[in-house]
Write a structure and sequence with these properties.
The complex is a heterodimer of chains A (238) and B (408).
Chain A (H helix, E strand, L loop, with lengths): L1 E14 L2 E14 L3 E5 L6 H8 L7 E6 L2 E2 L5 H11 E4 L11 H11 L4 H14 L15 H13 L5 E5 L7 H18 L2 E6 L10 E6 L2 E7 L12
Helix pairs in contact in A: 3-4, 3-5, 4-5, 5-6
Chain B lengths: L1 H12 L1 H41 L2 E5 L2 H4 L11 H12 L4 E15 L4 E9 L1 H7 L4 E5 L9 E5 H7 L6 E7 L5 E13 L3 H4 L2 E5 H8 L6 E6 L5 H15 L3 E5 H4 L1 H39 L1 H9 L4 H37 L21 H27 L3 H5 L3
Parallel strand pairs in B: 3-8, 5-7
Antiparallel strand pairs in B: 1-9, 1-10, 2-3, 2-6, 2-9, 4-7, 5-8, 6-7
Classes of the chains: A alpha/beta (238), B alpha+beta (408).
Bound molecules: adenosine-5'-diphosphate (ADP) and magnesium ion.
Chain lengths: 238, 408
């Protein structure tokens, strides 16, 4: 079953009275369990695409469907709930809440789902264990390295067991060694949990774990390579 | 719980800004409590002065006196028989401190060279001394039952007559049967009731002497002093019922019914207080809204992140409003505590207040911090904080998520 479907999606921005087409009548379907790498130069429209799939932005034309649900039909509140339950975000600058500990940062999206504290804490600790941070759960972001912060952010994205994780250049602020570790981690999570990943990057070296590589240029998909079969079937608990 | 913890941590995170906000809330709470407490003490002072110098708590008249008595006071006197019965009955109540009769009339006071229109009150000097504790003797000696001819002269009147203590004066009046008579009185002293207008025209003399002058055995009114001003309404109702049951044609007035001037001053000052409240509200509001908007702007990327994680607009609003509630609670509690301390300090230092308008006595400044006042203004502080947070919170909730995230 497809997790995400885009039909003729366009998005343009007005910059000084001149329209800039960020996405141009894009068609795309993402299947469950895929690890999709989205490549493209800076300004090619990667973030715009992720924002549209993440129900944070609205297309000027076409339709985005998550689990066959057309986003254009949803209210702001419904989109929030959709993000809360089905979508996980990983950002370039980690975007942790500075006053909260690693554990609390990971717990936070669960508290937005009104899951009781005790249960949320357990699940958050579990997720932090999965990303190899069991020993750092009580640290604040400023007591963690960049790689560790991004691991916390990954734990935060997977803790709600979403259907798709949207990662917008998550390694852009990390050195190459750490970047490789992070990508390995995401790949492992994809294999272990069957989570669907859409991973945007402007680097070339992220291919090892990818099941599919998309290349974006000037708002159009110019390449769509399926590298291997799906790495796993859905193993989501529940 | 985590949401609440986040709100609390956010309050602590920018100490300087939270401190300024707390200061603004405290400023509002403290200034309103001090002002309200000062007004309350002033009201109480005025009230007790007027009760204990002129009005008592309750006055009892013959039926019709208040409507027609000013034209024909002699027609609406309480007869000696009724007087005796009522005094016994009223004195029997445990809330009552004392009951004393008064005979009021107008007259002309002459010192031989000059005649002045005066308001005369025939009193029972021993009882009146207890009731009129706020009447101050400014010269000479107090009046006693034995001084049949003695009289106390209002301070202003005393000065304008230009006489000495012990001087003999002549008081003329229209008697109960409509003729004209005069009696000699001796000025034993000068008094101040606290109200300058009264002091300019007021004479107090022995009731018996006054009754002789007026050719009557009756009195105009009975003045009742209670142990506690709070009991006025209850005792009024009680007496009303008892008089009705006994078929006594009497009517009652409370101090509040009679103290027009007191009510005018209270209304005026309440109005001033309301205006000040709005000014304080505006000052505090502007101060807090500004710092809260700054907090929102500073946390733009965080707001975007939380929204991306699925927080609804309402949840963003509630995050910022809870921060305001925390600040409001802390600020109000601190404000109330400091206000109590300041009020006690100011009261203890006994600074003399300028003479209130129309008053002839001065008091030290006192500030009453009644639980009611503290609660009201504590809540006021909390409310200001919450109201101030609404605009910034809504602003935060309406941020475009993708744009908010670009500031990360
Ligand atoms: N909010 C915006 N306002 C104006 N132009 C924008 C906005 N977001 C994106 N763009 C433009 O759209 C194009 C695609 O941007 P983006 O999706 O961020 O690319 P990428 O993430 O691949 O670098 C760029 O030309 C960018 O300048
Ligand atoms: Mg981008």
């Amino acid at each position: 079953m497809s997790v995400v479907k885009l039909q003729q999606v366009s998005r343009a921005f007005e910059v000084g009275n001149k329209p800039i087409v960020a996405l141009d009548k894009l068609d795309l379907t993402l299947e469950e369990g895929e690890f999709v790498v989205l490549r493209g130069a800076s300004g090619s429209g990667k973030s715009t695409l992720l924002n549209l799939i993440g129900a944070m932005d609205n297309p000027d034309g076409g339709e985005v469907l998550i689990h066959d649900q057309a986003l254009s039909t949803l209210s702001d509140k419904q989109k929030s709930q959709l993000r809360s339950h089905y979508i996980g975000f990983i950002f370039q600058s980690f975007n942790l809440i500075p006053v909260l500990t690693a554990l609390e940062n990971v717990q936070y999206p669960l508290s937005l789902q009104k899951i009781p504290d005790a249960q949320a804490k357990l699940r958050a600790a579990e997720a932090l264990d999965q990303v190899g941070l069991a020993d750092f759960i009580h640290r604040r972001p400023n007591q963690l390295s960049g790689g560790q912060m991004q691991r916390v952010a990954i734990a935060r994205a997977i803790v709600t067991k979403p259907d798709i994780i949207l990662a917008d250049e998550p390694t852009a602020n990390l050195d190459s060694e750490t970047s490789i570790q992070i990508m390995d981690l995401l790949g492992e999570l994809n294999v272990q949990t069957g989570l669907t990943f859409l991973f945007a990057t402007h680097h070339d070296f992220v291919l090892s774990r990818a099941s599919r590589v998309l290349e974006l240029k000037d708002g159009k998909i110019i390449k769509d390579d399926k590298l291997r079969g799906l790495t796993s079937v859905k193993t989501k608990a529940g | 719980m985590l949401k609440l913890k986040l709100a609390l941590l956010n309050v602590l995170r920018n100490g300087r800004r939270s401190f300024i906000t707390l200061l603004a809330i405290q400023f509002g709470v403290i200034s309103l409590i001090l002002m309200g407490g000062f007004f309350a003490s002033m009201y109480e002072g005025m009230r007790e002065t007027v009760i204990r110098s002129q009005l008592g708590h309750i006055q009892i008249y013959s039926e019709g006196f208040n409507q027609f008595g000013s034209q024909q006071p002699e027609e609406y006197l309480i007869s000696p028989e009724v007087l005796e019965q009522v005094v016994k009955q009223v004195e029997g109540l445990e809330q009552v401190a004392l009951v004393t009769p008064r005979l009021n009339f107008t007259g002309l006071l002459t010192d031989g060279s000059k005649s002045l229109a005066v308001i005369v009150e025939g009193i029972n000097p021993d009882k009146e001394a207890l009731l009129s504790s706020a009447v101050k003797l400014t010269q000479g000696e107090d009046l006693f039952d034995e001084d049949i001819e003695g009289a106390l002269i209002g301070e202003g009147l005393f000065n304008s007559l230009n006489v000495e203590v012990g001087a003999s004066l002549t008081l003329m009046a229209t008697t109960a049967d409509g003729s004209f008579d005069a009696r000699d009185i001796t000025a034993t002293g000068a008094i101040s009731t606290g109200t300058r207008e009264v002091d300019n025209r007021f004479v107090r003399m022995n009731l018996k002497h006054a009754q002789e002058l007026m050719y009557t055995q009756g009195v105009t009114r009975l003045v009742v002093l209670l142990n506690d001003t709070e009991q006025t309404d209850a005792v009024m109702a009680l007496l009303q019922a008892e008089f009705a049951a006994k078929g006594l044609a009497l009517e009652l007035r409370s101090w509040s019914n009679l103290a027009d001037y007191y009510h005018e001053v209270v209304n005026l000052f309440d109005g001033i207080f309301t205006v000040v409240q709005f000014i304080v509200l505006a000052i505090v509001l502007l101060g807090i809204v500004n710092t809260m908007v700054m907090a929102v702007m500073e946390r733009t990327p965080e707001i975007g992140t939380i929204r991306a994680m699925g927080a609804t607009r309402f949840e963003i609003i509630s995050l910022f409003v809870s921060e305001a509630v925390i600040l409001g609670l802390i600020g109000s509690v601190l404000g109330v505590v400091f206000a109590i301390l300041l009020a006690q300090g100011i009261t203890a230092s006994e600074i003399m207040m300028p003479t209130p308008p129309g008053s002839s006595q001065t008091y030290p400044i006192r500030i009453f911090t009644s639980p009611d006042l503290l609660l009201k203004n504590g809540l006021f502080g909390l409310t200001i904080a919450v109201i101030s947070s609404i605009y910034p919170a809504v602003k935060a909730s309406r941020m475009v998520i993708t744009q908010a995230l670009r500031f990360a």
